[in-house]
Amino acid sequence: TKNHSYTFTIFGGTGDLTYRKLLPALYNLFVSKQLIAFQIVIIGRRNYQHDEYCEIANGWIRQFVRLPYNDDSFREFCEHLYYYQMDFTQEAAYADLHAFYSAHNMHEHIFYFAVAPRFFELIAKGLTHVPDARQGRVVIEKPFGKDLASARELNAQLEAFFAPDQIYHIDHYLGKEMVRNIQTIRFMNPIFANIWNHDYIENIQISAMEEVGVETRGSYYDQSGALKDMVQNHLFQILSIVAMEPMRDNSREEMHRCQLDALKHLRKASALKLEDTLILAQYDGYLKEKDVAADSKTETYAALRLFIDNERWQGTPFYIRTGKKLDRREMEIIITFKRPLPTADPNILIIKIQPTEGVYVRFNIKKPGNSEEIVPASMDFCQSCQEINRINTPEAYERLLMAVALGDASWFSQWDQIETSWEYVDQLKQRAINEFLPIHVYQPGSEGPNEAAALLAKQGHEWFNQE
Ligand code: BG6
């Protein structure tokens, strides 16, 4: 399939996502010879000449490319680029687009909607004037809706024009190297696979800490908040992979079935005691950020304590935390096993997703010497510390774009997963509002609000921070 001639059309071709992620990823795929026969049609409203656009693209690609940049290969890459000026909100303009495709013999389409979701329907409708689009693929990004109702509406709009298996929902966390490694670490090691359940696991933490604040995205973020921005999508995806039942085969259907099954077994939000479940907080200074309402109640931090009520997980809490303006950028999954003795430390397994990619294991040994004391020892494997691994590890977007080209939707969100997660997050949010859950304040550069530590302390647990 590699030699199919794909046409990637990017709506929103002069936006941030295109410049920072899509073009660098496509360039990497080109340089590493994964994409051979392809064209990229950049759709924008501005009047750029081909060379002008290439010049701009060049600046971004140099800045964000992963593989060594070189002028000759960029020049070749640019021959695959077409800038197409168009107002994509005008339905009449799509007949011309179709004529353009035909004139260039472009028939196998991948449409990337790198635009605000309010334009999805317009573009989908416009593409009915491009007959080849009926066999094409559509790639969309989050935010997919702002709650369950709007997500359903959006989905109905898209599905009026495209079949579900033509629609690829990108969740860029599913392209990250160590997220792709969770199942191997879990299932290919009997030392973990056989004890991956509530009998042996005390608690599971999914921790996604960011150093950055809302930066220039205030108007989007203030309408969203940590639960909708991170938990509903990225962190629920990870949760479902960590918690899912073993797959019976490696098909995409089975992957999605197992993920969905885990999400469906989340203990109902209505059955949880809210103050033992959810901590919301805002960093001090958030209200002064650009495009943020002066009296905003939007959370920039969320900590959750959830349960999956199936045979495997009964009683094991899943702790999730995520926030902005924290003391570090660090994304990890931390599995704490039950103690063999009340006096011994627990075994701990950490899957490190970023910035370090690796695996950490802590175990017990006898203190060296004459003492019989039990002390913890650890092994810390850093995969990304080796240059060769860094070079060979594709960026999330490279992996995902290539998967779209190959028609492999395994590592994309499915509509029913999105729907289930929205439903859950909506219910939690609604309870937070109805029950006047406080929005705490935390200091920028801290580990988050004290209340998040207290949430776990009440259960005799703590957020694990590697010393
Ligand atoms: C995005 C969120 O989906 O993910 C951002 O909208 C967040 O708020 C980002 O910063 C985090 O992605 P990464 O890859 O930097 O961990």
Automatic annotation (TrEMBL):
<feature type="binding site">
    <location>
        <position position="172"/>
    </location>
    <ligand>
        <name>substrate</name>
    </ligand>
</feature>
<dbReference type="GO" id="GO:0004345">
    <property type="term" value="F:glucose-6-phosphate dehydrogenase activity"/>
</dbReference>
<feature type="domain" description="Glucose-6-phosphate dehydrogenase NAD-binding">
    <location>
        <begin position="10"/>
        <end position="181"/>
    </location>
</feature>
<feature type="binding site">
    <location>
        <begin position="87"/>
        <end position="88"/>
    </location>
    <ligand>
        <name>NADP(+)</name>
    </ligand>
</feature>
<dbReference type="GO" id="GO:0005829">
    <property type="term" value="C:cytosol"/>
</dbReference>
<comment type="pathway">
    <text>Carbohydrate degradation; pentose phosphate pathway; D-ribulose 5-phosphate from D-glucose 6-phosphate (oxidative stage): step 1/3.</text>
</comment>
<keyword id="KW-0119">Carbohydrate metabolism</keyword>
<dbReference type="InterPro" id="IPR001282">
    <property type="entry name" value="G6P_DH"/>
</dbReference>
<feature type="domain" description="Glucose-6-phosphate dehydrogenase C-terminal">
    <location>
        <begin position="184"/>
        <end position="463"/>
    </location>
</feature>
<feature type="binding site">
    <location>
        <position position="45"/>
    </location>
    <ligand>
        <name>NADP(+)</name>
    </ligand>
</feature>
<protein>
    <recommendedName>
        <fullName>Glucose-6-phosphate 1-dehydrogenase</fullName>
        <ecNumber>1.1.1.49</ecNumber>
    </recommendedName>
</protein>
<dbReference type="Pfam" id="PF00479">
    <property type="entry name" value="G6PD_N"/>
</dbReference>
<comment type="function">
    <text>Catalyzes the oxidation of glucose 6-phosphate to 6-phosphogluconolactone.</text>
</comment>
<dbReference type="GO" id="GO:0006006">
    <property type="term" value="P:glucose metabolic process"/>
</dbReference>
<dbReference type="InterPro" id="IPR019796">
    <property type="entry name" value="G6P_DH_AS"/>
</dbReference>
<feature type="binding site">
    <location>
        <position position="176"/>
    </location>
    <ligand>
        <name>substrate</name>
    </ligand>
</feature>
<dbReference type="Pfam" id="PF02781">
    <property type="entry name" value="G6PD_C"/>
</dbReference>
<feature type="binding site">
    <location>
        <position position="142"/>
    </location>
    <ligand>
        <name>NADP(+)</name>
    </ligand>
</feature>
<feature type="binding site">
    <location>
        <position position="324"/>
    </location>
    <ligand>
        <name>substrate</name>
    </ligand>
</feature>
<dbReference type="InterPro" id="IPR022675">
    <property type="entry name" value="G6P_DH_C"/>
</dbReference>
<comment type="similarity">
    <text>Belongs to the glucose-6-phosphate dehydrogenase family.</text>
</comment>
<feature type="active site" description="Proton acceptor">
    <location>
        <position position="234"/>
    </location>
</feature>
<dbReference type="InterPro" id="IPR036291">
    <property type="entry name" value="NAD(P)-bd_dom_sf"/>
</dbReference>
<feature type="binding site">
    <location>
        <position position="229"/>
    </location>
    <ligand>
        <name>substrate</name>
    </ligand>
</feature>
<dbReference type="InterPro" id="IPR022674">
    <property type="entry name" value="G6P_DH_NAD-bd"/>
</dbReference>
<keyword id="KW-0313">Glucose metabolism</keyword>
<dbReference type="GO" id="GO:0009051">
    <property type="term" value="P:pentose-phosphate shunt, oxidative branch"/>
</dbReference>
<keyword id="KW-0560">Oxidoreductase</keyword>
<dbReference type="GO" id="GO:0050661">
    <property type="term" value="F:NADP binding"/>
</dbReference>
<keyword id="KW-0521">NADP</keyword>
<feature type="binding site">
    <location>
        <position position="210"/>
    </location>
    <ligand>
        <name>substrate</name>
    </ligand>
</feature>
